[in-house]
Amino acid sequence: MVTSSYQSSPQLPMHPQRQRLSLRPSSQRASSAISSPHPEDNHGEADELLSQEDADALNEIIMAIDMKENGARGCTLGCAYYIALDEALYLLEDVAMAGVDLVETLLLYAKPTTVLISSRASESLADCLARAAQGIDGNRGDLPGAYILRNLNSADFRYDTGKDKLLGLDLEMAGRQSMLYTTVVDEGIVEDDHGGQEGSRQGRLMRLGTSVNLDSQLTVGCAGAVLNDLHRRKTAQYLPNDPDALVAYKIRSVEMFSLFDFMFVNADTFASLQILQSEHHPNSHQQGGAKENLSVYGLFHHLASTPQGKLKLRQIFLRPSMDIDLINERQQTFSFFLRPGNAESLMNLGKYLRKVKNMKPVMALLRKGVDSPGRKISVNNHAWATLQRFAAYSLQLREMLRELQGAEKIVIIRKVCEIIDPFPIGQVGELITQTVDFEQSIERARTAVKYGVDAELDGLKQSYDGMEDFLTRVVTRLRDEVPEWARKYVKNCIFLPQLGFLTVVSLNTETGKGNYDGEGLNDVWERMFAAEGCVYYKNGKMKDMDAEFGDAYCMIIDREVEMIHGLTVRILEQEDAIIAASEVLGELDSFVAISIGCGQYKWTAPKMTHENVIHIEGGRHPLQELVVPSFIANDCAMAGGLGDYDRETPGVSSSAASDGLHDSVDCPSTLLLTGPNHSGKSVYLKHVAIIVYLAHIGCFVPAERARIGITDRILTRIATRESVSRNESAFAIDLRQVAFAMNFATCRSLVLIDEFGKGTNSQDGAGLLTATLHHFASLGSERPKVLAATHFHEIFEGQFVEESAELAFAHMDIRLDYDAGTPEDQVIYLFQLVPGRSISSFGSRCAAMNGIDQAVVDRAETIMLHMVRNEDLEVVCSQLSEAESQKLAAAEAVARAFLEEDFGPPPGITGKKATDEWYQTKLQAVLSAGDRMPDATSSTT
C-alpha cells in the first residue's frame, strides 16, 4: 500500500529567480488599448526601460568644435554634434567673427556629454572648453552639465575627410530617391535597389547638398570628426558580427541649424539673469546628476509632466525666438489654455500627460530586442506596457483637445490632431493588447503571449499545463513496475527544461547513492544529478517520454519569442508615427507647463512689435517677488536707434516703420541708474532683461502691461564669474564682458551694465564708465538700448555725463530719518524708480546698518564730504582737531614757562629737603601755566 505522501503532485521546473507558475489564461483581460488604458497602472512607472549601459549610450551627445583665425577678420567657428537618442547629426552654419562666448552658447544649446577638439585648436578655445570639462577623476568643472573633453588629431577635422564621411552615410532617405544623377565622368552606372545612385559620387554630392551646406568647411570637418569618433566607439564596444552593432550609433538624418534664428544670449547672461541655473544634486545616490536651482526655467520645470516635455521646455528657454509670428502663436496658445472655461481641461491634460512616456528609448529598446539574452527588464517597466499605455492616452489626449471650444484655431492642437493618427496608434495598442499577457509576464518575469493568438502555442501550453496530472499517472505506473520494497523510494517523476523527464528517488545518506537505481528491471537507470535529498535518474521510460513529448517548456519559449519578434516587427513599422506622436505630445506638455505657470504667477501677455522699444508698466522680478513679503513694481520706457530697416534681418520685417517706429523717438536709449546700496538697482536691471527674454520665448511676463520690440541680443556686465582655472583677474573679466558688448551690440540689442569700473581705482573706473556710455551714445541710429547702474557720483559732479534725449538719469528713491535711534531706521528704502539722480550712495549708512563701528562711519562721512568738494585730502587729513589744538597750546605754554623760569640755586635756603621743596614749587608753577589756557584739558597736568 502506497501512502498518500507518495501521491503528491510532482514539482515543475523553477524559473530562474522565481517559481514557475501556471500558464493557464487569466480570467480578466483588457479587450483593447482604448478601453483599458491602464495595463501597468499597478506596476509603477515605466521610467527605467533600459539598463544603465544602454541608457548612458542613448544619452550621449557628441560635439566637435573647431575655430580658425582669419587675421583682422577675427575667427570663424564650425560645430557639429550627434544626439544618440534622436539618431541625428546636426551641423552649424559656419559663423564668422566668432569668439569663445559663442562657444559657451553652443555648449548651453546642445548640452554635450563629450566634446572633441583638434590638436591644433587655439589656446583660447582649448582653455574655454577645459574650464567646463570633467577632471581626470571624473569631477565636474566650473559649469553644470560638464562633459568629457578629448583632443583628436587635426587630420580628423579635415574638410575632405568630413565630406567623404558624410557621403558614405547610408541615410534612410537615400532609399527613397527616384532620380538618377549622372555626369560624363560617371561610367558604368547600374541602378540597384538603393535608388540607382550608389555608383555616382556626383549624385551623392548633389543629394547631400540638399540638406548640408558644403560651403561651411569647418563644420563639415567637425562632422567628419564626430563620425570618426562614432566609428571608434562602435569598433571598441562591439564584435564584428554582433547584431547590436548594426543599430548602435546609427545616423538616420543630417540637419543644418543656425543660431541666427534666435536671440543671442551667452553664458554670462544666463548666469546673471538666472535663466537656467543647475547645481549638483545633493542626493548621494544621484551624484553626477544635477537639479535645477532657483531660476526662471525652474519656475516651470516641475510643471512639465513628460521627459520629452521637460526637454522641449528647456529648448524653448534656451532658444528665444526672433520670429514675431511664432511668438504671437505661442501667446495665443497660452491665452487659450488660460481661458476660465478651460481651467479643468488644463488640469486634466496635465494628469493624462503624466502617464505618457518618451517613446524614443522604448523604440530603441524594441530595435535591440526586448527579450535578448541577458537583458533584465521587469514587467513593471516593460516596453509593451509603456507602449500600450502611450497608445491609449495619446488617443484620449487627442480627443480631449478636439472637444475644446475654439481648438481648431490653435496651432499646437491642430498639430497634435494631425500627427497622432488614430489608425496606426490605435493599431499598435490593439496589437499589444491582443498579444501580450501582462499578468503572466509578471509571474514569469518575461514577455508572455495570450491564449487565442496562436493555435500551435495554445496546444503546447495546454499540454504543458496538463503535465502535472500526466506525471502523477506516470509515477503510479512506475511504482507498480518496480519491486515492492523499492516503491517507497520512488518519489515522483518531473520535467526539467533542457534535461527532459526524470525519475526522482530518495537519497541514501550513508552511501551517497539512490535507495533504488533500477534493480530487478530490464532497464538502465542513468544517474543525472543529486539535490535536496533526492537522486534524479534518466531511464528508458523517461527517454520514451522525451521522444514523444519533447522539451515542451523550451518549445513554448521558442514559440513565444517568435510571436513577440513578429509583434516587434509590426510595431516598428509604425515607429515614425509613434515617435512623431511622442514628440508632439512633448511639445504640448511644454506649452501646458508654461500655461499653468503663467496662470499661477499671474503674469500677463506682452504685446510684441517691430518697434525698437521696451515699454513696461508695473514690471516685477519673477524670482525676487517669490522670496520677499512684498515687491514694488516699476516701469521702464526705452527706445533703441532706428537702424537700417532696409536690410533683411532674420525674424525682423523690413516694414517695421509701418508699426509706429517713429512714435518712440522721445524715449531714451540709455538709462543710467544711481541710488544707495540695497536700493534695488540690480534687481531693476535684471527684471527688465528677464521680461524681454520671456517675451521672446512667447511666454507671459511679470508685468501689468508690456510692449516689447524684437531684440536680437541681451549682453550683460553684471556677474563676474571668477575661477582659479581662468588666467584673468576680476577686472579683466569685467573688461572682456564690456568689450564683447561694444563689439557685438546692434540697435536691436539690450545691454546691461552694473557697476562697471569698480574693480580698479575710482578715477580709472569712472573714466571707463563715462567713455563706455559715450561710445554707445555716439552710435547714432545704431545705438542699442543700455541700462546701466553706478556709484561713481563724480561723473555727475564733474558734468562728464549729462542728460540728453538719448541719455536719461533715474534713481531708486529712499527716505532719510536722521532722528531715528538706530542706523537701520535712518534709511528707508522705497524701491521705487524716480527720474533724476541720487546725490549719494549712502554707503556709510549701509555700513552702520551692517555693524560697522559708528566712529569709523563718522570718519568715513567726513572724508567723503571733502572728496565731494574736491579738496586735497592730504592737507585735510593733516589738520588738527580742536581738542588737539588745545592740547598743543597748553603744551606750548608749559614749555615757555619752563624757559622763562630761573632754576638757579635757591637764595637763602639750605638743606636738601628745603631745596627739593623749593624746586618742586617752581615746577608746579611751570605746569600750572597750561591750566591757565582757555578750555585747557586736564590731561596736561
TrEMBL record:
Region (Disordered): 1-46
Keyword Nuclease: no
GO CC annotation, single: nucleus
Entries under SUPFAM superfamilies matching the protein: DNA repair protein MutS, domain III (SSF48334), P-loop containing nucleoside triphosphate hydrolases (SSF52540)
Single GO molecular function: ATP binding
SMART domains: MUTSac (SM00534), MUTSd (SM00533)
BP GO terms, sorted: chiasma assembly; mismatch repair
Protein name listed in UniProt: DNA mismatch repair protein MSH5
Lineage, highest ranks first: Eukaryota, Fungi, Dikarya, Ascomycota, Pezizomycotina
